[in-house]
Design goal:
The chain is an all-alpha fold. The chain is built from 21 helices and no strands. The radius of gyration is 24 Å and the shape is flat.
């Protein structure tokens, strides 16, 4: 049977909302047809599609694997429990796929994921922390802090323990709660554990209580060490967040010429948030930056400020080497040209 005839049959079942027929067709179609069916089942949101889709988690075809994740995410609450059961699967790809799908489901998955932080299996705890970080629900902050504070009651290897803790720390950084700062600062004193991760997360949260501990870290580590470099970046990030809060345009504009591209990127993003026309000229200059992520954030910032002066320089960037920059320029120009 040809691809076209397969798709026609599938579309007939789709129009009739024939879920059973579509599930049966999953067993027979080629990869393109299977991917189409998976997307249809996700759009339908019927819980009968959950078991067959769960079986397809971690599919060898990457496009099908991603379609399964997104479709289970669309189905939502009905998929939570079956996905939770896959967080300790022996196949690491299945574990990660389940965690990603739970992240897409969002709020209905939060309570089961919080409960999973106490699971005996370290893989479940690690993946639950990952999903909670992606969902970014503030409700998870205290349970995540407690997981970090209380250590691990279950016997496991140091590697396993650190994998769980690292995901917990990253999750706290993604949620961005200042409540996590004291325990994170305390974690810096343990040199054997997730040093770089803690440093980066403290920079992401941007709480000024981290400034002195980070400075101390720079003093106690040799020049050019990864920890020292990350500590300086974290301090710069905290500075940028403070400038953004205080709307310090002059300070942020100066940082657009900083030697570190990550600082320039953060400054450009912050100027976009402030949305002041005084930043337009320096941001236009930043469109020439050697780093694509800096250019990208300059484009996005100019899109937010919406000043006519940006149109001509943005057009010159339509042939940028980076496709994400190109796409962002096209979208930004549409916004500006619709306004002016």
């Amino acid at each position: 049977m040809t691809f076209e005839s397969n798709i026609l049959d599938v579309k007939k079942m789709e129009s009739k909302k024939n879920v059973r027929g579509l599930i049966e067709a999953l067993k027979e179609g080629n990869d393109d047809v299977v991917k189409y069916i998976i997307n249809v089942l996700g759009d339908m949101g019927d819980e009968r599609a959950v078991p067959p889709l769960i079986k397809m988690l971690g599919h060898l075809n990457e496009d099908i694997a991603l379609a399964v994740i997104y479709s289970l995410g669309k189905i939502g609450e009905h998929a939570v429990e079956p996905l939770m059961q896959k967080l300790n699967n022996k196949n690491k790809t299945v574990q990660i796929s389940a965690a990603m799908a739970l992240s897409l489901i969002g709020k209905p998955a939060v309570d089961p994921l919080i409960q999973a932080l106490k699971d005996r299996d370290w893989r479940v705890r690690k993946n639950a922390a990952f999903s909670l970080g992606e969902i970014k629900d503030k409700k998870a902050v205290e349970p995540l802090i407690n997981t970090l504070k209380n250590g691990d009651k279950h016997i496991c290897h140091e590697y396993e323990l650190n994998m769980v803790k690292e995901n917990v720390i990253i999750a706290l950084g993604k949620i961005g709660s200042n409540k996590a700062v004291p325990i994170l600062i305390e974690s810096l004193e343990n040199e054997n554990f997730c040093d770089l991760t803690v440093v980066k997360v403290l920079g992401d949260i941007g709480d000024e209580r981290a400034v002195e501990p980070l400075k101390q870290l720079i003093i106690t580590h040799p020049c050019h060490s990864d920890t020292r470099i990350e500590a300086q970046l974290a301090l710069d990030n905290i500075k940028i967040k403070k400038m953004k809060k205080e709307k310090d345009l002059a300070g942020l504009i100066i940082l657009l010429e900083h030697k570190d591209w990550q600082v320039r990127e953060g400054a450009a993003a912050a100027l976009g948030t402030i949305e002041h026309t005084k930043a337009v000229t320096p941001l236009i200059e930043t469109l020439k930056d050697e780093n694509e992520r800096v250019r990208l954030n300059a484009v996005l910032a100019l899109g937010r400020i919406k000043d006519e002066r940006a149109i001509k320089p943005l057009k010159q960037l339509l042939n940028d080497d980076n496709e994400f920059v190109q796409d962002s320029v096209i979208i930004t120009l549409k916004k500006l040209e619709n306004k002016f």
